[in-house]
Design a protein that fits this description.
The chain crosses the membrane at residues 12-34, 41-60, 66-83. By secondary structure, the chain is mainly α. It contains 5 helices and no strands. The longest helix has 24 residues, at 63-86.
């Protein structure tokens, strides 16, 4: 879905740089604003759907990649939650 907006987007930069930073920030923001620890991890689990699905056919074929990358991004979001817990003024 993200490739429809920018044809020159490097897939490795998206998968390994932009989306993990977004997952980390989602984890921090959700833990600060909503005070629910794992809401950010749940939202980050669904982030791979932004770049693995363009139609139902690609969704069915790439469901294993979605689960694998979703678990990785949920872990990155949990790191953001843990960093928020370690701060003194939280």
């Amino acid at each position: 879905m993200l490739y429809l907006f920018n044809d020159n987007l490097n897939p490795f930069a998206l998968v390994l740089l932009y989306i993990p930073i977004l997952a980390f920030l989602i984890g921090l923001v959700c833990s600060y604003l909503f005070k629910k620890k794992y809401l950010g991890a749940v939202i980050s689990f669904f982030l791979p759907l932004l770049f693995t699905t363009t139609s139902w056919d690609t969704f069915i074929v790439n469901i294993d990649a979605w689960v694998l990358w979703g678990c990785f991004y949920a872990f990155v979001a949990c790191l953001g939650i843990l960093i928020k817990k370690k701060t003194r003024y939280s």
